[in-house]
Amino acid sequence: MAKVFRKKPTSVIRTNLSQPERSRSWFNFIKPIIVVLCLILAYGVYNQWNNWLSLLDSSPIKSYALTHKTKFTTNADIRGVLSEAPDLKGYFGQDIQELKDRFLSLSWIRDVSVRKIYPDRLSITLLEHVPVARWNDEHLVSQQGVVFDLPKDRFDSEQLPAFYGPDISSKKVLDAWYKIQKDLESRKLVLKSISMDIRGSWSIVLDNQVELRLGRGDWLPKIDRFVTIFPEIEIPEEKRLSYVDLRYEHGASVGFIQR
What Pfam family does this protein match (any one) (predicted)? Predict the structure, then answer.
């Protein structure tokens, strides 16, 4: 008996998509476009945020209050800073960092904090440098070793010790001052000024106007040598001791000037 083979039906490929499938396909196509548009919109909002907030301001900032009393900064200084261009904006539109930068342009201001108080006021905290020495006879040095200036009519610096040196060395000179001052106190000597040249060579002046030329390196043994030889120095009549040069490995040289 002959066998009959029946052909299996072939699968049918659908060419028409259903409505949900067409929707998903269309969404996958436009999704990257939507993401790009959202990013552009977000950037535009971020970039124009301050401008939009400034539209809410009815008037510019009109007044300020200091959180504590200042020693060197006057109300005229503060008003002058706040009146600089560009003009003050309102509560929402005013950039706080811009105001901080204005105050820090005053040489004697060490740090500043500015806070906006709604609707049109500022709260200002000013931290000032405290002068501890004169610098190169023209400027001042702060407790942090920062060189700054003050109007001469606001502070008498004549009683301060004198520092000399390259401007970039102010912190190093200040640190050396405290160390040498402490060393001299134990020897009943008073330090009046200190200087360092561009080669790192040191010299100091005592309160009796005698200059000690210490040179480079450790100054302690040189100061000890001065204390040892000072009582033995014979000073000619009508003259006084001007300097003691201790830069030698042993001994020292001295100089005199007319009284």
Answer: FtsQ_DivIB_C
For 142, residues 6+ apart whose C-beta sits below 8 A from its C-beta are: 110, 129, 130, 131, 132, 148
Q: How many CA atoms lie within 13 A of 47 on its CB side?
A: 6
Lowest mean pLDDT among 9-18, 72-81, 213-222: 9-18
Q: What is the CATH number of domain 131-258?
A: 3.40.50.11690
Q: What is the mean pLDDT of the segment spanning 106-129?
A: 96
User: Two tokens at 255?
Assistant: 């100089």
Phi-psi group of 98: left, alpha or beta (phi > 0 → left; psi -120 to 50 → alpha; rest → beta): alpha
Question: With a threshold of 0.70, does the pTM exceed it?
Answer: yes
Looking at residue 250, the DSSP 8-state letter turns out to be: S
Q: What angle do CA 129, 134, 138 make, to 5 degrees?
A: 100
Tens digit of each residue's pLDDT (9 = 90 or more) over 134-176? 999 999 999 999 999 999 999 999 999 999 999 899 999 999 9
Q: How far apart are CA 59 and CA 70, in angstroms?
A: 29
63-128 maps to CATH 1.20.1260.10: no
Query: pLDDT by residue (tens digit) across 19-57?
Result: 565 556 655 666 676 666 666 655 554 455 556 655 666
Average pLDDT over residues 191-203: 96
Cis bond before residue 60 (omega within 30° of 0): no
Q: Taking the domains of the chain in order of start, what are their residue ranges?
A: 63-128, 131-258
